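Translate structure to sequence.
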């Protein structure tokens, strides 16, 4: 794949460039070859220059872990797992065995961890945007039966961020996979007791 280099520009030209890139990214993603994968994270495009970088995520795809516990056992402990990470639960669907938080407004930290551990919202000269921007985070996890006693644990992380100090629209952030991995690890640790 060829790498494209961008010069940092401002004003209307930058807006036009971002709109063009946003329109082109889905086409680029759909044209890539390769086999299917069970663990997929958002495809991103990072644009950078002297003033900082902007990361655009064109898709949000669930991360899937395969666990050897029943979906019902996992579903029962999911609310406490979310609580351990610092995610209050506001969505529970017993029929689908889904637990989540849709639209959590946070800043700087998720639980005891800096947001930049989990999210890539670009960088400025003072550091990762995830640690200083206003972030709206949605995390949902579904436990689906897989085989006789296994579970496909599907976690979807979607985040948007904007500067806290001035008015600007929200931009998508990409997940680093840490929330998804932490949820699976906590489930394994608790059910293996």
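Result:
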């Amino acid at each position: 794949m060829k790498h494209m280099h961008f010069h940092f520009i401002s004003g209307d030209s930058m807006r036009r460039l971002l709109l063009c890139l946003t329109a082109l990214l889905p086409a680029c993603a759909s044209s890539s070859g390769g086999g299917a994968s069970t663990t997929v994270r958002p495809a991103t495009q990072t644009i950078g220059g002297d003033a900082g970088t902007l990361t655009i995520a064109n898709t949000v795809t669930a991360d899937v872990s395969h666990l050897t516990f029943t979906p019902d056992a996992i579903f029962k402990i999911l609310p406490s797992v979310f609580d351990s990470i610092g995610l209050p639960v506001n969505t529970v669907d017993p029929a689908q065995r889904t637990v989540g938080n849709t639209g959590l407004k946070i800043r700087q930290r998720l639980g005891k961890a800096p947001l930049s551990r989990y999210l890539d919202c670009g960088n400025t000269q003072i550091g990762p945007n995830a640690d200083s921007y206003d972030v709206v985070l949605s995390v949902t996890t579904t436990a689906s039966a897989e085989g006789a006693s296994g579970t496909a644990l599907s976690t979807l992380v979607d985040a948007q961020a904007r500067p806290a100090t001035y008015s600007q629209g929200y931009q998508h952030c990409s997940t680093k996979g840490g929330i998804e991995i932490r949820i699976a690890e906590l489930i394994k640790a608790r059910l293996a007791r």
